[in-house]
Every structure is written in structure tokens, then in C-alpha cells.
Amino acid sequence: MQTNTNFSRGADAQGQFGSFGGRFVAESLMPLILDLEQAFNTALSEPNFLAELDRFQAEFVGRPSPLYFAERLTELYGGAKIYFKREELNHTGAHKINNCIGQVLLAKRMGKTRIIAETGAGMHGVATATVAARFGLPCVVYMGATDIERQRDNVSRMRLMGAEIVPVTSGTGTLKDAMNEALRDWVTNVDNTFYMIGTVAGPHPYPTMVREFQAVIGRETRVQMQAREGRLPDSLVACIGGGSNAMGLFHAFLDDPSVQLIGVEAAGEGLDSGKHAASLKGGVAGVLHGNRTYLLQDNDGQITDAHSVSAGLDYPGIGPEHAWLHEQGRVDYAAVTDTEALDAFHVCCRQEGIIPALETAHALAEVAKRAPLLPKDHLMVVCLSGRGDKDMPTVLRLMEEKA
């Protein structure tokens, strides 16, 4: 069902995408949220801010990221012509830095002197620690104890750049629990602290703000594909936890009905197993972390634990714009199991000489299903959201267990 032809218009004045989004926060945070919204809207209208953002994107992040023809993967599947949007070549190794550069420039304009963040796979934490170091701001990153154990290299990188890592042991010790603790810190330190959310979730204006800073991915893809093939792509594929790399890729194409958009959730051990992180395929609407969206919940409305082999997708919710696009039928959402993602991880390593993040491997697994069934003139772009160096301990352990 596609009932809307202006999908790129974004949230309304209350920060809602249809019935999703909004700002469900403590009363003490509301003035700060409104200040942030005003600062964000003002910054976007000022040429000086946009020029400074562009300069850091080019000289610090390394943009534009390449659009790469995955020739051997295309030959292997024998169908669609597959391109990679190489966000893993950004400074810090993932798309997360696009958003962190934008948010740290806002924090400086607002006079904030302390940065906090939460992280799951560690890539947002690394990007946050990186920009905090660059701008000389103290930084505290909340991270679940489970994720600290499986993402040790990223923890070391954050510490090297001066960030304080606070282990979170409540719940399952993953991203949801880390976000809870970061929100508690923010409520306590509203005067001097800027909370740098890493995905298109949270109270308004965060979903819109993060998407705006990530939308450079899709804008570049549009220009690069026109230059390479002389037309728009036929389909775009991206993995989804909260959904920032996907919204960044999709947004520039939302109002192009010829372009199919495919988001890939983590089905974990299977949608019927109860151990997955597929909020759209296996969840219902509810409120968490300041916004209304699709969530994994039990019959009493309590948030249930998510599961994914990839720490970055291990979250029981999804950004509210994705929830809206799902109900509008504009984006086709699929789900991929841990096993399928791991198989795609190895195929990408061997066919293209690229070690993808386990998050990205979910998108590649969906490509493996769809590309062979498509004609050879079909142009498919996959967002390579991050590199897989951080996942080597997890992958090697699973390979040993399987041997």
C-alpha cells in the first residue's frame, strides 16, 4: 500500500511520522529538547554551518565515499548488477561519523561542554569519541557489558581517544540498557551535556536530525549512479537496527517510485524462535526511549530482549520513520537470520576482498536471495555501512564452534 506520494516531507511540527515518533520525555528534558530543535533548524538554514559541515565531511570523514561495482559478486549471482556504497571507508570505519560530525558542530554552537552517548556495536561510540577528541570535549559512552565483551577492539579505540566507558550490567547488557543509562545521565546533567544519539530513534528532533546528517549517503549515490550508469538505481538495500544507514541511503529516493527500497532486519535464530531483533516483522507499536514506534513486547506490553549475532542490530525497536514507511508500504522490510548473515559475510570476504560488518552482512544476505532472480540490467545498490574488523572475535569463535 502506497497512499502517499511525498514520503520525503518528514515529520510534522510535533515530530510525528503519521502515528509514530513524537517526544515522550521527562518534563525536565522538554526545554532542552525544544532548544535542540531550534538550534538544529537554525543551523540548517545558515550557509556558514552547512559550509563547515561540508568541509569536515570532506577533509575529516573522507567524503564522498566511493560507489563500487561489485563485479565478482554480480558474476556469482548472475542477475542484478550490484554496487556497494562504501561507507566502511569513512574515517572510523562506518557511516556513524556522518551524524557525529553534524551533532558535535551543533553542540559547540549550543555552548555544551560535555558529550555523552550510548553504543551497541561500538561504531557510534568510536565516532562520538573521535569527534569529542577533535573538538576537545570530555566524553562518556554508555555500553552494555555484553557488548563490551564482544566488541573489545572498539572499546580500546574509544579509550585511546580519551572517552570514559561506563559498563551497563542491567537487563541483557546491550544497546537498550545502555540507552536507558544515557538518558538518566542526560536528565541529571541537562545544563552542560549534549546527548549524541546514534540512530534515527529517540524523541523529536533526533530521528529527523540523524536522518538529515546521514542523507548525504543517498544524495551522493544519486549523483554517482547517474554519472556511472546514466540513470537511477532500480533498488537499494540496507540493514536496519535503529535504521540510520538505511534512512541515509533511502531518503534521497523516497519520492522516486521506480526505485525499490529494501530494509533488512535481524531475524536472529528465526522469527518463530523468540530470539530475534526484527521489530517490524515480530513487534507491535509502543513507546520506548522517547518515541512511538514498533517494538518487541510481551502480552503485558513489557519490552522483551532482542537477539542478533551483530551487536549493532541487537535492539528491540526501530526508528519511527521506518515504522511509518512500513505502514505506508513504501519500503519493503525483510528479515535475515544469523546463519544467513554469516554465510553472506564469508561470501563477501572471498568474492570481493572486503570484510563487512556483521550488520552489513544482513543486507548482503538479502542481496543473495534477490539478485539471482533479477535481470542483468537491474541496478542494485547495497549500503556497506561498516567494516568487519570489530567482528573478528565473534566470527572466529563461531567458525571454531562449527568446525
TrEMBL record:
GO molecular function terms attached to this record: tryptophan synthase activity
Cofactor names: pyridoxal 5'-phosphate
Sequence intervals crossing the membrane: none
Pfam families: PALP
SUPFAM superfamilies with a match to the protein in the record: Tryptophan synthase beta subunit-like PLP-dependent enzymes
Keyword vocabulary terms for this entry: Amino-acid biosynthesis, Aromatic amino acid biosynthesis, Lyase, Pyridoxal phosphate, Tryptophan biosynthesis
Known EC number: 4.2.1.20
Domain Tryptophan synthase beta chain-like PALP: start-end pairs: 62-386
Pathway entry: Amino-acid biosynthesis; L-tryptophan biosynthesis; L-tryptophan from chorismate: step 5/5
GO cellular component: cytoplasm
InterPro entries: Trp_synth_b_CS, Trp_synth_beta, Trp_synth_beta/beta-like, TrpB-like_PALP, TrpB-like_PALP_sf
Keyword Oxidoreductase attached: no
SUBUNIT field: Tetramer of two alpha and two beta chains.
Role, per record: The beta subunit is responsible for the synthesis of L-tryptophan from indole and L-serine.
Family: Belongs to the TrpB family.
Protein's name in the database: Tryptophan synthase beta chain
Gene name as annotated: trpB
